[in-house]
């Protein structure tokens, strides 16, 4: 019971943190085009999944299915890695609400999302085919950004990220980036599946259901009739 309360509290607080980060982002940048960014999309998705996990655990039920929980983890880790490795070195300094939202949405939620998945998820149900299925969203995002760029021909946000900028890279360059990122994302998803399989041998960290670690079931020896 105690572990369930801890898990429910963690997911609930993570959902609240996402809400605070997104609110600060809207205050700093306005509502226009915020939904275009993968950062905001992946954070909102994580917030919804975390809120659902917290709500279900508070009500004595299981958290969302492991593939769903892992997909939210994978996408938010992608956000953290792409920003901090690719984008941060050339990003302009941020202040106020922009700095707060940047720290929350690019640093805090990727770390906490992965931590929650490692500690509180019920592991052992993933297969490597899931790593391929999870690619649908990132590749779909690439396609969405390119199609959008055909119609949004003015303003500073025709392409939300430099590695998607057809004007600078051409469609061939963007295609190379898409294949490269897809391969990296697949291996990252496969790594999560591998970790899940290892952790699955150790059992769930949120006991409370039949057959889960931490739940002792007394043995009953039937008495013989005389």
UniProtKB/TrEMBL annotation:
Keywords linked to the UniProt accession: Membrane, Transmembrane, Transmembrane helix
Keyword Transmembrane helix: yes
Transmembrane portions of the chain: 40-58, 65-86, 98-120, 132-151, 171-195
Heme listed as a keyword: no
Superkingdom of the organism of origin: Bacteria
NCBIfam families: Pr6Pr
Protein name in the entry: Pr6Pr family membrane protein
Organism for this UniProt entry: Actinocorallia aurantiaca
């Amino acid at each position: 019971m105690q572990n369930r309360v801890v898990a429910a509290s963690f997911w609930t607080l993570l959902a609240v943190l996402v809400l605070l980060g997104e609110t600060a982002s809207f205050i700093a940048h306005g509502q226009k085009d915020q939904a275009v960014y993968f950062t905001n999309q992946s954070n909102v998705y994580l917030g919804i999944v975390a809120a659902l996990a917290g709500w279900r655990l508070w009500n004595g039920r299981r958290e969302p299915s492991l593939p769903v929980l892992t997909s939210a983890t994978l996408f938010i880790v992608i956000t953290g890695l792409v920003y901090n490795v690719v984008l941060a070195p050339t990003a302009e300094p941020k202040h106020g609400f922009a700095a707060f939202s940047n720290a929350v949405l690019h640093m805090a939620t990727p770390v906490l999302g992965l931590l929650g998945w490692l500690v509180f998820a019920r592991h052992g149900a993933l297969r490597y085919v899931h790593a391929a299925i999870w690619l649908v969203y990132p590749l779909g995002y690439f396609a969405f950004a390119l199609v959008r760029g055909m119609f949004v021909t003015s303003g500073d946000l025709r392409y939300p990220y430099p590695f998607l900028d057809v004007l600078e890279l051409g469609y061939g360059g963007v295609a190379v980036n898409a294949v490269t990122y897809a391969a990296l994302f697949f291996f990252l998803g496969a790594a999560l599946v591998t970790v899940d399989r290892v952790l699955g041998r150790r059992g769930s960290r949120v006991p409370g259901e039949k057959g889960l670690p931490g739940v002792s079931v007394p043995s009953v020896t039937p008495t013989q009739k005389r």
